[in-house]
Amino acid sequence: MTKKAPKQTLLQIDNVRIKESDAYNLIVERYEKVYNPIKKENSEGWRFKGFNSSNVGCLKLITKKDLLIDEKAVSDLNGHLKQVRESERKMLDAIEGLK
């Protein structure tokens, strides 16, 4: 029996990462806290947010779903716009780091 290689993380921006899924797809995950109503407890972990066949598609998905925006820091329109600008800066910094 052959041992499977661990899935490689291709890019991580704060609490969001792009990871290999299989030979054809990449997955986007976000590390977040969730409440499990069955166990009645909070847990933390990487949660699946979507998949795509390319890095560019994954970056678009991160932007489209606002995965880098901290909802707790948003209380009004100005707060949301500030979070959007911060999210864009983080994406650009990550892309520059890949060069």
DSSP summary: helix tally: 2
**Sequence of secondary-structure elements:** EEEEHH
Strand order of the largest sheet: 1-2-3-4
Counting helices, strands and paired strands, the structural category is: alpha+beta
- What number of domains? 1
Alpha-carbon distance between the two ends? 38 Å
Q: Which of globular, elongated, flat, extended, rod-shaped describes the shape?
A: flat
**Alpha carbon gyration radius:** 16 Å
Task: Give a structural overview.
The chain has helices spanning 55-64, 77-98, and strands at 9-13, 16-20, 26-36, 41-52. It has one domain (9-98). With 99 residues, the chain is an alpha+beta fold. 32% of the residues lie in helices and 33% in strands. It is flat and about 55 Å long. The N and C termini lie far apart (38 Å). It has a four-stranded antiparallel sheet.
Q: Which terms summarize this structure?
A:
single chain; 99 residues; alpha+beta; 4-stranded antiparallel beta sheet; 2 helices; flat
Could you write a compact summary of the structure shown?
The chain has 99 residues and is an alpha+beta fold. It is 32% helix and 33% strand.
List the helices and strands and how they pair.
Blueprint: E1 9-13, E2 16-20, E3 26-36, E4 41-52, H1 55-64, H2 77-98
Antiparallel strand pairs: 1-2, 2-3, 3-4
